[in-house]
Amino acid sequence: MERLLQILGEPLCLQIVERLLTGPPETQENLRKELGADKRLMSDSINRLIDGKLVSRERARGPCFLLRREQVYELLQRAADLESEIARNDAERKAKRARALRKTQLNAPNDWADTEAAS
Question: Which domain holds residue 30?
């Protein structure tokens, strides 16, 4: 599982997997053009996906297709849910900090404001 997460943590690998998850099998060259990737980077990413048993192809220049589709979909869905929860928690933390700052500012003695203005 750790290796799978490591592979999917690479932006181009994730893009390839998402593309193959939502569309038909495609050749490496067409994926490269579609995703606007460098030839070498695309080749390295496809090889990592093949080594990780996420992608396969029947011949060297043949179309790439996604393996373990259900597992990959579930993993990506969980990752998206986690990302959403992290963003929500981050927003709540920032809002709480903003409220605390406003409260501090409202409770500050007036001479603090005068001191700040003078400096």
Answer: 2-67
Instruction: Confirm if 8 and 17 have CB atoms less than 8 A apart.
Output: yes
Residue 66: what are its φ and ψ, rounded to 5°?
-80, 135
C-alpha 46 chain-centroid distance: 18
101 and 45 part of one domain? no
Mean pLDDT of the region 83-110: 85
* 86 inside domain: yes
Helix %, strand %, coil % of the chain (to 5):
75, 5, 20
Between CA 76 and CA 25 the distance in angstroms is 19
Q: Within a 10 A sphere around the Cβ of 5, how many other Cβ atoms?
A: 10
Q: pTM of this prediction?
A: 0.71
Number of domains in the chain: 2
Token reading at 75: 């993993």
